[in-house]
Amino acid sequence: MRQSLRTTDIVEHANALPGWRQRYDQLSCGSLEGRLDVVQAGEVQLFRERLNQQVIQHICLPQNAVNILFPLAWPGVDDQGVMAEKYATVLLPNDEYRVFTPAGMDVLCMSIPYATLRNLLDEAVLHALMQLNRPKRVCLRAHRLVPGIVMFKSLMEGTPTSATLQSLTLMVVEWLERVIDVPQETPRPSTRGYIVERCHQWLIEEPAASSNVLEFCRRLKVSRRTLQYSFQSVAAVTPIQYMRSVRLNGARRALKEDPHASIADIAERWGFSHSSYFTLEYQKLFNELPSALRCVERS
Length: 299
Hints:
Blueprint: E1 2-7, H1 10-15, E2 21-26, E3 34-41, E4 44-51, E5 55-60, E6 65-73, E7 88-91, E8 96-101, E9 105-113, H2 114-118, H3 123-130, E10 136-138, H4 142-157, H5 162-179, H6 189-205, H7 213-220, H8 224-235, H9 239-257, H10 263-269, H11 275-286, H12 290-298
Helix pairs in contact: 4-5, 6-8, 6-9, 9-10
């Protein structure tokens, strides 16, 4: 389901978001220009909200869901220490929030039910997350957030695919596991090495398969935290980073072997269904565009 609203009425704007109880009070003078775009993809809700005036937002969040906000534009400083450009913020449905949004505000939000996270997030992390009693800023470097924002915008502007939505959801899960502190179990060194080796083999044997962290946990019969710790210990990266890098290297080899092949086809062959996301991650890893390698090989 997709819906869009453009309005000059602050009350209409506040009441337009499905599942949210909100009251907005306009602070700055002038005509309001509000815009709200909402996509409901299964149980996950995505929306983008823009307002040209300063507003006090009184918000009761949807129950039984975690809400991740990405401010694209947040002029000025948030004295509450919750919102800031280039950071994500986790909001939980524990209480009513009163947020002072600046004129020119532009935010993305992803609302994920606990039931969905229960199948993705480590149980200890989910429990700690549900105990949070105030908003938590996801303090990750901007370059880690950019791929998620790119996918988010793509989902908002195009036709949401299950693969892209799953990729974005798993990326959010990775962010949460980075910022929520819980005690870690420590597998033996030999076990860690075995876990990484088996995952690597599966990636090479099944490059186009939609294998993800959950699938590898199921195959190996280990928890997400064990998988995470093993990759951090052996390769100093997360499982998602490792899998992405192996696939990108495989795609690069394929481009070198057949420079006349379609970049999109090779990307899909190596598990990247979203071409702009593939290009962004490829450039970040190799400091060049996929097309640059193809031009060199053709010459």
